[in-house]
């Protein structure tokens, strides 16, 4: 794990998220706290309905927690107007969604350019350079429907990296990929951490758990940092279970 300060990465403190449908109220997150430093890769695992996607949405500023705070590089992104959250997300956070983050009517290159246009100033790398980094430069003019699953995942990663984010959040990035492509995409995420990103991966993949520095398990909206065996997976990062939040 990097020696970087957690103030230079992602911090969530006591996150709660309530959903109300009629007279019924669901508590999706129950006081979740976590920290991911720059240079670190953290995997979040848990059964369907445990709160993983809700957690990622709150961390990304796509949704507001009902209670608690989210900070990126010491800047609070939660409990702000939606337009401010979008601006901060575009500047600080890259998001790789399970459904991919490409607009269907734009080429891979234009999708990256559009993401870069969300932040004023000259981007650190051109769209072509980013697509070359993730291995799909030759497919830069292709529409999303013309790309294979692996190409979509890599082009989506280029979009997530468009503005050199300090935090990279990935929601099931390898869920529909074959083994070889899964390894490639996970290595790319790991490389981003080694380049100084704080990387958090929501996953069911044992391979994603294997490359992580730490594993956090969610169950019924509660988070526990856990040995991989306790998360129903295997790998080298076996630790004593300890509670992260109540």
Walk me through this protein's architecture.
α3 crosses α4. α6 links the parallel β7 and β8 (198-202). With 246 residues, the protein is α/β, with parallel strands linked by helices. It has helices at residues 52-60, 82-92, 108-116, 127-133, 149-160, 179-194, 206-211, and strands at 10-21, 24-36, 41-45, 67-72, 75-76, 93-96, 167-171, 198-202, 214-219, 222-225, 242-243. It is built from seven helices and eleven strands. The chain has a single domain, classed as P-loop containing nucleotide triphosphate hydrolases (Rossmann fold), CATH 3.40.50. It has a seven-stranded mixed β-sheet, sandwiched between helices. Residues 1-5 and 228-246 have low confidence and may be disordered. It starts with 9 loop residues before the first strand and ends with a strand. It comes from Streptomyces naganishii JCM 4654. One of its GO terms (molecular function) is ATP binding.
